[in-house]
Automatic annotation (TrEMBL), chain A:
Residues 10-143 form the CcmH/CycL/Ccl2/NrfF N-terminal domain. Belongs to the CcmH/CycL/Ccl2/NrfF family. The chain crosses the membrane at residues 105-123. This is Cytochrome c-type biogenesis protein. Possible subunit of a heme lyase. One of its GO terms (molecular function) is metal ion binding. Keywords: Cytochrome c-type biogenesis, Heme, Iron, Membrane, Metal-binding, Signal, Transmembrane, Transmembrane helix. Residues 1-21 form the signal peptide. GO terms for biological process: cytochrome complex assembly. One of its GO terms (cellular component) is plasma membrane.
From TrEMBL, chain B:
PANTHER family: THIOL:DISULFIDE INTERCHANGE PROTEIN DSBE. PROSITE patterns: THIOREDOXIN_1, THIOREDOXIN_2. GO terms for cellular component: cell envelope. It comes from the Bacteria. One of its GO terms (biological process) is cytochrome complex assembly. This is Thiol:disulfide interchange protein dsbE. It is found in: Cell envelope. Keywords: Cytochrome c-type biogenesis, Disulfide bond, Redox-active center. It comes from Paraglaciecola mesophila KMM 241.
Length: 149, 190
């Protein structure tokens, strides 16, 4: 029984290393380059799978983009150069930080607008005077109270 | 006045939101405008898939209206699309394949070219062959330069070698009718 367990353990170990081996490993000359690579693969968006960055995605295109980022980083290109390279091919879509232009400016304006609107609304409702007393209604109420006595 | 605005304002907000969300029902999240539109095909030097001694450059697109179809035997939708592409070819359209293989790792290629050729021959033997020839995108570099996200994708290229249309997904009679037909006729007439 113990032998059997050992066998399973050995098999599992063997299997797990082979899975590890299939992962890509990229080697960098400097720590700065490696940091840039990890930063960029987190900020670049996979064009195929929408809501994943290329570091997380298993799509082939993401693997190709990672390889390209690695290549460009190793060539000594700067962060901006690499982002531009990707944008030239896959559009603004590929980078998670959208540029400010006529269509996207609403992303910043609308929340600001709502906050302003909310502040104005709250301030106004606080300033409102208590409902003015209607003399005739008061008298009618007094009368009803009198009748109840 | 106050009462009216209390009624109308939420109504306007609701209507705006409804229109926004309604449009979302019909938009394709995978579709985004190609950055290459009206620009020349990025330069490349790549071999022919079946005869690797033969090389192609952007020159091959000059003088012809070309449908450049990105595909691979591993791609299921491509297999669905190929019979329709063959029909287009029989109507006289010039279709060029941009072939890339999934199993070739650009850094440690594990598949031989002969094996790829064999698979392609078998596949096209079954489905029919719509391609005038296939450009072999060995390291998938041209695909990356073209902004390809997967297969199938199709580019409509004019006689000057400029990209005029980029379609993500398969081409079927409906897509051809709605998206390609009019542009294609225009380019032919140019």
């Amino acid at each position: 029984m113990i032998r059997f367990k050992t066998l399973i353990l050995v098999l599992l170990t063997v299997l797990s290393t082979s899975i590890l081996a299939s992962e890509e490993t990229y080697q960098f000359e400097t720590d700065a380059q490696s940091a840039l690579f990890f930063e960029l693969t987190k900020e670049l968006r996979c064009p195929m799978c929408q809501n994943q960055n290329i570091a997380d995605s298993d799509a082939m295109i993401a693997a190709d983009l990672r390889r390209k980022v690695y290549q460009l980083v190793n060539e000594g290109q700067s962060r901006e150069q690499i982002i531009d390279y990707m944008k030239q091919r896959y559009g603004d879509f590929v980078y998670y930080q959208p540029p400010v232009n006529a269509t996207t400016v609403w992303l910043w304006l609308l929340p600001a607008f709502f906050v302003c609107f909310g502040i104005v609304f709250v301030v106004r409702s606080r300033q409102q005077k208590p409902v003015s007393q209607d003399e005739t209604k008061l008298q009618a109420a007094e009368k009803l109270l009198e009748e109840d006595k | 006045m106050r009462k009216i605005s209390l009624f109308v304002l939420p109504l306007i907000l609701f209507a705006g939101l409804a229109i926004f969300l309604f449009q979302g029902l019909f938009s394709n999240p995978r579709e985004h405008e190609s950055t290459l539109l009206n620009k020349p095909v990025p330069s490349f030097v790549l071999p022919d898939l079946m005869n690797t001694d033969l090389t192609y450059t952007t020159e091959v697109f000059v003088g012809n209206v070309t449908l450049l179809n990105v595909w691979g035997v591993w791609c299921v939708t491509c297999a669905v699309e190929i019979p329709f592409l063959e029909q287009l070819k029989n109507e006289g359209k010039h279709i060029v394949g941009l072939y890339y293989d999934q199993d070739i790792d650009p850094d440690f290629g594990i598949k031989t070219v002969e094996r790829v050729q064999q698979e392609v021959e078998q596949k096209l033997g079954q489905l029919g062959d719509p391609y005038a020839y296939n450009i072999f995108d060995v390291k998938r570099d041209l695909s990356l330069d073209l902004g390809v996200t997967g297969a199938p994708e199709t580019f409509l290229i004019d006689k000057q070698g400029k990209v005029r249309l980029h379609h993500i997904g398969d081409i079927n009679p409906r897509v051809w009718q709605n998206k390609f037909e009019s542009v294609y006729q225009e380019l032919i007439a140019e």
